[in-house]
Amino acid sequence: MTEKARDAANRFLLFAGDYYYAAGGWADFRGSFATLDEARTEAMKTEHRHPLSKDLETWWQIVDAQTESVIEENGGTYGR
Question: Residue 47: CB partners within 8 Å, gap ≥ 6?
Answer without folding.
Answer: 56, 58, 60, 74
